[in-house]
Amino acid sequence: MQSEFMNMTKRGLVLGATAVALTTVTVTGAGVHLSQGQAFFSESPKELVDEVWQIINYQYVDGTFNQVDWRSKRNEFLNRSYTNKEEAYKAIREMLELLGDPYTRFMDPEEFRNMQIDTSGELTGVGITIAKDEKTDRLIVIAPIEETPAFKAGIMAKDIILKIDGKSTEGMDVNDAVKLIRGKPGTQVNLTIGRGAQQLNFPITRARIQIHPVRARTEMTPEGKIGYIRLTQFSAQAPKEMRDAIRKLERQGVEGYVLDLRSNPGGLLYASVDIARMWLKKGKIVSTVDRKGLVDAKEANNSALTNRPLVVLVDGGSASASEILSGALQDNNRAVLVGTKTFGKGLVQSVRSLGDGSGLAVTIAKYLTPSGRDINKEGIPPDIIMELTEKDRDRLQSDRALIGTLKDPQFAKAVQILSDKIQAQTPNSANN
After folding, report:
1. Domain ranges, residue 167
2. Is 32 exposed, middle or buried (0-12, 13-18, 19+ CB in 10 A)?
3. Rounded to two decimals, what is the model's pTM?
4. Residue 175: CATH number of its domain
5. Contact 339, 261 (CB under 8 A)
6. What pLDDT does residue 136 have?
7. Do 106 and 161 belong together in one domain?
8. How far apart are CA 302 and CA 275, in angstroms?
9. How many degrees, rounded to 5, is the angle at CA 333 between CA 238 and CA 406?
10. What value does the mean pLDDT take over residues 336-350?
11. CATH number of the domain that 59 lies in?
């Protein structure tokens, strides 16, 4: 596990949608401090507070620090006395709260180890990604991961977590919620969920979860053989699994593709870029802009695996790296997006280890789609809006085998669109 994590440190950026320690978001490290720093910290907890301050000072995306006098805050926090590391941790979290950014967060050593474990693709928990809703200050579900206990129990994207084992989450920090929800496999946690006007209780048994981010198959339709690919997260394994899936479906002679990004909460930046290049022959994929206005643009590199018609399914649980991929395909006119507006998480985090084995996730940039759209908090609107009714949602939730079939209304709409595109290509194919 350690070697995999270290191999990923060169990547340096994560786009997943918070609460990573809970179950899903894969991360990269940005440097590991030596034991000398750890020894120094054991003598001076104040050193860790200053280390976090320095990282924010040099890297944080907002140069105004949320209109906070960041330099004066350094003096304020360093003038305090810290008798142990727990007091330092509390001060760091207090300092970071001043930024008003739920994605910039401190992780104690246990939380940071959990995050490192998540990069392996083997998770322990219930299978949800959560964040703090800035408007309501409540914990919101970004998305459940397929085939996990939370997914099977019926947890949905945009659900509000009201209580954890009877304890109210009002004002609760994401990290504290993570600690309550995590636990040993086989034990149970009860989540009280707010969904619209409803208040629902979900007793969920924790489990160890092995995640394969790509599922693919062919679907026979009246319009011919369609390749269906469902991508559940942008983990380190996702590019290879996606490449293998496309190549296999090409050999099977599919006439078009449906790429399903519904309830995909995001993951690694490089994974979204790599996967976009499998579908795009040329064109810009994404630009990242830091507080100095510097732009790092990623482009396609003539390595597309197919040029067949493509429809992408998105919804409110499609976040972060999902929005990079869908935005790139939409702006380059490579795919038609079907479903509902995406989550709206357009920020990039760098994750690094600190002197005592704890970790810090820092928002260092925002990303823009090829056409220059800043989708943070706004989301990406689909080309064709296709809402699922509550009845449809419940039916697909209770019988997951129907997802990605003609009994899935959004998939059926995608097939209809593909049919039109395939027919439009046929004369050209004949002339060639």
Report:
1. 130-210
2. middle
3. 0.73
4. 2.30.42.10
5. no
6. 80
7. no
8. 13
9. 65
10. 93
11. 3.30.750.44
Q: Which of 371, 367, 262 is nearest to 13 (CA)?
A: 367
- C-alpha 103/C-alpha 30 separation (Å) is 16
CA-CA-CA-CA torsion sign (245, 247, 249, 251): negative
Phi/psi of residue 339, nearest 5 degrees = 135, -130
- Report the sign of the C-alpha dihedral through residues 117, 122, 128, 134, in that order: positive
Tell me the catalytic residues.
320, 331, 345
Alpha carbons 432 and 420: distance in angstroms, whole number: 20
Residue 150 tokens read as 């939370």
How large is the average pLDDT for residues 263-279?
Answer: 93
CB-based contacts of 201: which residues, under 8 Å, 6+ apart? 190, 191, 192, 193
pLDDT digits (tens, 9 = 90+) for 359-389: 999 999 999 999 999 988 889 999 999 999 9
Q: Is residue 262 part of a domain?
A: yes
Q: What percent of the chain has pLDDT over 90?
A: 58
Residue 362: strand pairing partners: 350
Confirm whether 404 is domain-assigned. yes
